[in-house]
Amino acid sequence: ERLHERVIGQDEAVKAAARAIRRSRVGLKDLDRPIASLFFSGPTGVGKTELTKALAAAIFGSEEAMIRLDMSEFMEPHTVSKLVGSPPGYVGYDEGGQLTEAVRRKPYTVVLFDEIEKAHPDVFNILLQLLEDGRLTDSKGRTVSFKNTLIIFTS
Question: What would the CATH number be for the domain defined by 2-154?
Answer without folding.
Answer: 3.40.50.300
